[in-house]
Records
---
Amino acid sequence: MKILEIKDVTVHFQNQAILQSIQLSVKKGEWAALIGESGSGKSVLASSIGGLLPSELRVSAGAVYYKGRNVLACGKEEMRTILGAGISYVFQNPQSVFSPFYSIGKQFEEVLRTHRRLTKQDRRKKALEMLEQVGLPADRAYSSYPFQLSGGQLQRASIAIAMMLEPELLIADEPTSSLDSLTAASILHLIKKMQDKTGCGVLFITHDLRQAKKYSDHTYIIKRGNIAESGPTSRVFSNPSHPYTKTLLSSIPSLRSTPDRLPVAYGRTGK
Ligand SMILES: Nc1ncnc2c1ncn2[C@@H]1O[C@H](COP(=O)(O)OP(=O)(O)OP(=O)(O)O)[C@@H](O)[C@H]1O
């Protein structure tokens, strides 16, 4: 079942097309990767899904269906309900998710107050449970202010708050770009774990080809506002058809030449 279906979406800034006739879909439980270089239109596409485009950008054609409902035609109130409970975001910069003026726990509880009918005690219990699930010391994180957590810890908290209402679609917009590689790997592992637990669809926006290859079922390559190529990840990476995809893949030689497992000489002799 398709959770998200983007049909022929075109976005303009004044008379310049930033996205052109985009087609993309994400099924329940699927991990789709959207790969493209800087400025190709990844974030504009992510924003258009949740109706989060800045006012100077306009969707000039097409539709974005969330479970069959065109979100581009939804009113503000309906969109507010869909966002959070149906579609959630994790951004590159977790600071943008949290207010610096309130503790993390208070901000979790505020989301629950808006979307769920729970007692104060149950809101606190749920917040602590989510913080624990993402591997944070729950009590400390709950009472911390955002600046008291490291970048990696804050990204974990942002995943916890994004998953708290069990959304059906998680849009992860370059969630690891500001993190060191070890922390980045643990964050992607965590998103995968949360997906396995809830069965949500994931739209993973990245320029990291290795991570896309490792996690995604389906890959979309975007170039200057157009989908240059799409298909099952294994096919796109093993047998790319578009010259642009070939160039992207060949820019990281080890991606295609490094075997998934260590060679016998290193892996199995115990030496
Ligand atoms: N608010 C805006 N007004 C005008 N043009 C914009 C606006 N936001 C983005 N653009 C333009 O749209 C194009 C796509 O930008 P976008 O931010 O989606 O790229 P991206 O692929 O996410 O890049 P990055 O990987 O660097 O985040 C760029 O040419 C950018 O300059």
---
Amino acid sequence: MRSKIVAGNWKMNCDLSETKVLLEGLTGKIKANNQNKVVVAPPFTNLHYAFESLKNTNISVAAQNINENESGAHTGEISAKMLKGVGVEYVIIGHSERRAIYKESDETLAAKTNQAVKEDFQVMFCVGEELASRKAGKHFDVVKTQLEKGLFQLSASEMQNIIIAYEPVWAIGTGETASPEQAQEMHAFIRSLLAEKYNNGVAKNTSILYGGSVKPNNAKEIFGKADVDGGLIGGASLKAEDFLAIIDSL
Ligand SMILES: O=C[C@H](O)COP(=O)(O)O
């Protein structure tokens, strides 16, 4: 079901002691009347701690990655069952850093998505174009291909487990945000693809988040757009005060 969501992707930041401090800064601070979903994605080593310390709060825990296999000889990898066992409900798949630095292909991302959906995680599936593609006017094509190859193998009913995050690569960690209009334009395009591939129900019920240099001073304007259902926040999720201000902007 479409919801308003603010998710914090901590990336490779925060050891256990820093995780404790950051979570203490969030716990009990979200206004009681706030109906939006709040998710944090600490590194793997702190997922269990995060789940235990957030148990009686309205903050859920996400993993930043998942392996597409059930178990076995995959040194250094983490399975769906392991994540389930420590209370993880959400998984980020296809972040541009995984695509670019760790060379995760569309096929791998499709397999990861299938595995995560099979295990009933909520998947935050990331898409987004690089600057060269935006400059060449190819951004819609890039996002369409990413969705077609990594996500659209799912059935309409499986799409209930999917949240899409549009993160233009040129806006990630750069301080340069897509304008609210650019975000809205892409989100509306993604929704039109969902309607075309599936049906209007899927299009209407899928949450689409924006990510890329969202800060307390620009969140409200971006979140104010009709097809923007919240944000996937990197840098600003590492400071409790900033993350809370962004949650309040939704
Ligand atoms: O997953 C989050 C995005 O990569 C955005 O990161 P950022 O807010 O630091 O630009």
